[in-house]
Design brief:
The chain is an alpha+beta fold and 163 residues long. It has two domains: 1-29, no CATH class; 31-156, 2,3-Dihydroxybiphenyl 1,2-Dioxygenase, domain 1, CATH 3.10.180. Helix content is 20%, strand content 39%. It has three helices and twelve strands, in the order H-E-E-E-H-E-E-E-E-H-E-E-E-E-E. The strands form three sheets. Strands 4-5-6-3-7-10-9-8 form an eight-stranded mixed β-sheet. A hairpin with a 5-residue loop joins strand 9 and strand 10.
């Protein structure tokens, strides 16, 4: 069991490093939301034939350069991301990938993959003290901009939701 952080210590951390922003007298949770669930597919077209055409999920974006496509999950901001490279896994949104990595390591976790730049921000993989790997993602560069067919045409800076 991880030790709890007293409010006073969390406030001191917040002042020193902005790792633990406060809300309503408690430490703010590190993981904001599930940004996406990644599903590995042999190729994007085959994945789209199944998840879009057969199961009915609307295409939000497609980026052939990185071998991924994002599909809408109705009633949720979370995306279903088809990937030719990545394994099946949830992707957790955080405010700062660097701060999240530091927080995991400070409390007994470890880095599996160091933070790297991606078109919309930064991503890293950490492991908690129990052996669970988590993909952590910040959208610091913005979100994908697409044409009418869903093909990524650029990145809209300063947005926090996929559009």
């Amino acid at each position: 069991m991880l030790p709890s952080v007293p409010v006073e210590a969390a406030e001191e951390l917040q002042v020193k490093s902005k790792i633990a922003p406060m809300y309503t007298g408690r430490m703010m949770p590190l993981l904001d939301s599930v940004d996406a669930v990644t599903v590995r597919v042999p190729d994007i077209d085959a994945g789209l034939a199944f998840y879009r055409d057969a199961l009915g999920h609307r295409l939000r974006w497609r980026n052939d350069e990185i071998g991924q496509a994002g599909l809408e999950l109705p009633g949720s901001a979370t995306e279903l991301v088809l990937s030719t490279q990545e394994q099946y896994e949830p992707n957790w949104r955080v405010q700062s990938t660097a701060d999240a990595v530091e927080m995991f390591c400070t409390h007994g976790g470890q880095v599996v993959a160091e933070p790297v730049d991606i078109p919309v921000g930064r991503v890293a993989v950490v492991q908690d003290p129990f052996g669970n790997s988590l993909v952590i993602l910040e959208l610091s560069k913005g979100t994908y901009v697409t044409d009418d067919s869903g093909t990524v045409t650029g990145v809209a800076h300063g947005l926090s939701e996929h559009g």
